[in-house]
Amino acid sequence: MTTHDPGEALEPVAGNGLLHRRLFLTGGAATLGAAGLTLLTARHARAAVPPEVPQWMKAPGAPLSAYGARSPYEAHVERMVGSQPGTTGSGGSRTPIEHLEGIITPSALHFERHHSGVPEIDPAQHRLLIHGLVERPLIFDMEALCRYPLVSRIQFLECSGNSAGNNAPEPAMVSAGAIHGLISCSEWTGVPLAILLEEAGLRPEARWLVAEGADAAAMSRSVPLEKAMDDAILAIYQNGEKLRPEQGYPLRLFLPGWEGNMSVKWLRRIKVTSQPAMTKDETSKYSDLLPDGKALQFTFPMAVKSVITSPSGGMLMQGPGLYQISGLAWSGAGRVRRVEVSADGGRTWAEAALSDPVLPKALTRFRMAWRWDGGPAVLQSRAVDETGAVQPTRAALLAERGAQYRYHYHAIQSWRVTESGDVVNTYA
Amino acid sequence: MRRANAVDLRIAAAARAGATAVATLVSALAAAQEGPNLGVVATPEQVAAWDLTILPDGSNLPPGRGTAREGAAVYMEKCVACHGREGAGQPNDRLVGGHGTLTDAEPVRTIGSYWPYATTVFDYIRRAMPYTAPQSLTADETYALTAYLLYLNGIIREDEEMNAETLPKVVMPNRDNFVNAYEPR
Description:
The structure holds 2 protein chains of 2 kinds. Chain A is mainly beta. Chain A is built from 6 helices and 26 strands. The longest helix of chain A is centred in the middle third of the chain and has 8 residues, at about 195-200. Chain A is globular. By secondary structure, chain B is mostly helical. A two-stranded antiparallel ribbon of chain B has the order 2-3. At the A-B interface, strand 6, strand 7, helix 4, strand 15 and strand 16 of A face helix 1, helix 2, strand 1, helix 3 and helix 6 of B. Strand 17 of chain A pairs parallel with strand 4 of chain B.
């Protein structure tokens, strides 16, 4: 290990201490370790340092287990649950993205959005009916569906109501997950919907399908047939195991890159139609009211977006020095092409390192080295996707849409670092 | 338990033929309109029993009828606890009023001020309401509740009967303000 401060050799690339991303590129790992970049995490009071031998080496450990559980020291990493008045199962719970790294969301921390609780479904009794404008209405049981050719893809799911809190006139003093936690990313495995629709035989006038869940709300959304025949799957597995009940066990529609509400959970029925059904959740909700009173409907794709997860709201800097900025970027249009980071509120920008894998319609992890001098700073990230779409500023987004748009908020997030080291949400 | 089956054999055949990716197999199957064909053909009775979807043209609306007067009684028994007297809202969604507020700083989105289709009211009540006992209302009760909410919003008369013929003909005040943003590729 080197004894000098390797940070001296690090090249500043933008204002207020941002350093070159080479630190995170191939071969840079040794430098990174030597540079002592810290990800902000909670510090434990005492360490088992030499010459002490830690207690857990002085007796055999816990027994083998049939289904694993995380360390009790990680029990604070939880979803933030918020249910509607008078209910326990309607509402949402948000992924604590500020506590996670990499791109895969643990299934137990995948965000939830339910409209009438989580049904407990016996897979032996579950059926999928495909009917409507088809030659042959078909019923499938789960055993049959599991015998179809499966595909696996790592893709994000985002509620279109994610980040809507930043529409508020004043920035909420909350964590990254509390604002942006209706985003998660999993490996989804299932049957391409196109195969089943082809077997049922689409009639020439077929243009849409209406998907319905087996929950107590019979949640229902209309989906254009083009999407169903393109990359839609009926997901059975999430991160290698069968779907969690709160993610639609035993079967969910999964529409890559589109607003999460359309990926209907507990899928029990698909009706092929010539027109959308105009369900409650595609008219009254999930439509976007514009300042002139018009409402945009069927705004399906999730736009290019990013957020710095560390440092982020509610964290406390551990004194001046080198820090690792880490965050997530994604786009419903495909791959993330580039993420830029600013430490001076958007005056100067530098390109962050993207961690492999960079997959289409998946979360992408970006990292950046930053030397914090202890002064005030405003951290921002700005993503660009493979279509060239650029994540807008909050001011630009609100100027374009007004504050009542409610869904599809995807503006640049700003975190203010104060001289005392507090990190807070801010509108820069 | 994993059984040998038609799909496994297809995968094996595809692998032998040099098609290594399942995706190739999948697209081949789709292109040939040929799949494992493991679905069971549903009878018209099975489809009818499960099909809750009402289209804006009124298709699939069930037989039955109801008026606002009848709906008021159902509402007071089964809806008022969550939606307030006469749909005023609290603790859950407000259902009535807000007309002309959509361009305000604080728009009030209700069935009357925002929803573009009356059929959606019937569809949603039937599948999801009342919250604690969904799919428990009769078709007559659902038509009556729909009529009551349309009446409270000043869209139909108190004695106007809602049924499979009349409901799709109701023109909601905000219908023309919805813009379809979806562009097929």
